Amino acid sequence: MKKLVFGGFFAACVMLLASCLDGGNNERTDIEIGIVDYYKSPGKVLLRVNEGDSYDSYLYSPQMQNSGYEPGDIIYFQYHINFDSDENVAAQTNGYWTVTINQSLAATKYDNIPYLTDTATILSNEIPISELRADKYIQDYFVLTSFHGEVMTDQKRRYQLSYDANQEVITENDKRIYNLFMRAVETDKGKAPTSNQASLIAFNFESFLRNAIIAEKNEGKKEVNIRINYITSFNKDTTAIEKWNKLDFGYLIPEDN
Q: Beta-carbon neighbour count of residue 36 at 10 Å?
């Protein structure tokens, strides 16, 4: 059986969206996505895991203080928390929960392209995407996991997400849907043997959502419905796109917008 090359615990936990809860005591081990924030508590690296400024939105870990991450980095991580520890009894006063983080990995960040690339033509060194998953929205970024089957170990990839800023929104089941197109390009072939791999990526949706929210509110809608189209296969001689798949998800418009 091929293993998922993703980095340690992510192969088991992130791929399966597994949550590992400890029995007994008021403790938990889990996985989360957060954004590095130095500014909530000067001198400390905090991970912001939710929108808003309550203490429930921030995690502090001693292990992260010399991690090398920069403000704004989006991190996948495994953490352990003891809600009854001395630090966490005072969580509301401190402004954050204290956790132990032993595994972490940064997502690669990209900007969207507000014009549509040629969806009928294969890009140079383009590779298919086996599956695409939407993981979280945090501070203007949608965090995604892109899966790739049977590629060379240590293969390197870059991604692009393009859309027609003037597109006509399609309607399905009374939902207005915006189409975007994601592509993956191999930048380093890697080496044998082959393996199943995944990439952690985050696309900046700030500009796209700002315009889409205005349009949807004008239509009396409370949600922006997004469809990311991605290529899953080419023809046998890799001269034409054979099949597209799609990932649909929604963004609830905040009430204060």
A: 18
